[in-house]
Every structure is written in structure tokens, then in C-alpha cells.
Design goal:
The chain is an alpha/beta fold. The chain contains nine helices and seven strands, in the order αββαβαβαβαααβαβα.
């Protein structure tokens, strides 16, 4: 796997989840295709070949290595100045791979069910975000794109058909709704009953008694979701619509 940016030579440090995601994407590459992502330091595009090496960068085009520190500097412990190459791109130096970590917004009453849901999504490399109220949740959704949303009607204390949050999800702009895996959890639902999920404008319904099996439930439902919407969402992203 490429260890340094081919443009600024900064070290590319990935989490285990990011490495797994990159390796999975490389394994699916068709002959002659590249995997592209932006360097989190200089924001320049990097193309990877299926073997994890950089594509299309001749050796003579590689930037010179940064000057070595003098013996005096090393002895004094003087730090090297920060790399400011990312300023030319107009992006924060912290941008890049972090944005690839999917977020799961969880609106569930505290307890074993909430813990089980969070652990199931963490196991699927999502980062759980817990809402304190439906109002705060809807407010955050104006600025944050959540890859998954889990809602328990009891969290709001209203029947599903009277729920402000559920109606917010139903009325969401379709382009964004298609990119959000929406899960309803409660004693009134029948786990993995697709017809009920469709009727409720959700992607998955789960009866809370099946909480111990959430890992297997997510594995199946997320795969079905990817099979159904994956190609469509990929085209939208390719054309800058997502």
C-alpha cells in the first residue's frame, strides 16, 4: 500500500477500517481502472493501481524529499516547520479520508437496545452519533450527511404516523434519502419484513426482541441495500450529484 503522497511526500496514515475499505475497493478494480482519493495533506488527487501502488506518476515528476535536519537542529530538538502546501488548494489540511467514515445517527432510548445498535454499527465501520432530541437531530441533518439513521418511535413518545422525525425522513429530498439507510426499531415491527419497511418508508424494520441478532440483521439488510441502490448512488457521486 502507498505510504506517502506522491505530490507532497507527506505520510499517509490510515485507520484499520480505512485500509480495509481501500483494499476491498482495490480488489474490485477492473483492468485498467484506478482508485482515486485526495491526499489529506495537500488535497491533490492520488490514483492507485490494483496492487496499491501509485498510477501515472513518473519518477522525474516526484517532488524532492524535504531537506534533512542539521545535526545542530537534531541535538537541540528543534521541530521542523509545518507543511503548508495544502493552503494552495484552499482546503483544510484535516480534510480527506476522515470524510469517508460513515456516520450513523441513533435516536433510541437509553438501555441495552441502544448499546446493541451502536455496537452493531461500529462492527460495520460506522461511527455512531447519539441524538438528545428529535429537534436536535433534525437540526444536525441540515449540515451533516448521515449514512444511516436508526429511529425508535418511543424515543419521541408519539405514534409513528404522528412523529415529527419520521415525517421529516419521509419528506426528505429523494437524492439524499436514497443515500440514507433508514432503520425503524420497536416492539410493533416484524424484523426484516420488507413489505412493512416499504409501507413505513424505511429500509429496514427490526423488532427490539431481536437485538441480540442485530449484527446478522445488518449484514443482510445492508447488502440488500447496496445491491439495490449501490450502482445508482455511484453514478450520482460520479456526476457530483451526491
Amino acid at each position: 500500500m502507498l505510504a506517502n503522497c506522491v505530490h507532497c511526500q507527506a505520510s499517509l496514515q490510515f485507520t484499520e477500517a480505512q485500509l480495509a475499505k481501500i483494499e476491498a475497493a482495490l480488489a474490485k478494480l477492473q483492468p485498467g481502472k484506478h482508485l482515486r482519493f485526495n491526499c489529506p495533506h495537500c488535497s491533490q488527487a492520488i490514483d492507485l493501481l490494483a496492487d496499491g501502488s501509485a498510477a501515472g506518476v513518473p519518477e522525474e515528476a516526484a517532488p524532492a524529499a524535504p531537506p534533512a535536519r542539521s545535526t545542530a537542529d537534531r541535538n537541540l530538538g528543534k521541530p521542523m516547520p509545518p507543511d503548508t502546501g495544502w493552503l494552495a488548494g484552499g482546503h483544510s489540511e484535516k480534510s480527506g479520508m476522515a470524510e469517508d467514515i460513515p456516520l450513523a445517527l441513533i435516536l433510541v432510548e437509553s438501555g441495552a437496545l441502544k448499546t446493541a445498535i451502536a455496537e452493531a454499527f461500529v462492527a460495520k465501520s460506522y461511527r455512531p452519533v447519539f441524538a438528545k432530541s428529535v429537534e436536535r437531530a433534525m437540526g444536525s441533518m441540515r449540515f451533516v450527511r448521515y449514512a444511516a439513521v436508526v429511529f425508535q418511535p418511543e424515543f419521541e413518545g408519539k405514534p409513528l404516523n404522528e412523529s415529527l422525525f419520521h415525517n421529516h425522513m419521509r419528506e426528505m429530498e429523494m437524492m439524499h434519502r436514497r443515500a440514507t439507510f433508514y432503520v425503524l426499531v420497536g416492539p410493533q415491527f416484524q424484523t426484516l419484513y420488507d413489505l412493512e419497511a416499504l409501507t413505513c418508508s424505511a429500509n429496514l424494520v427490526v423488532n427490539e426482541k431481536d437485538a441480540p441478532h442485530l449484527g446478522a440483521i445488518l449484514n443482510k439488510s445492508l447488502q440488500d441495500y447496496q445491491d439495490l441502490f449501490g450502482p445508482f448512488l455511484a453514478v450520482l457521486k460520479e456526476h457530483g450529484k451526491l
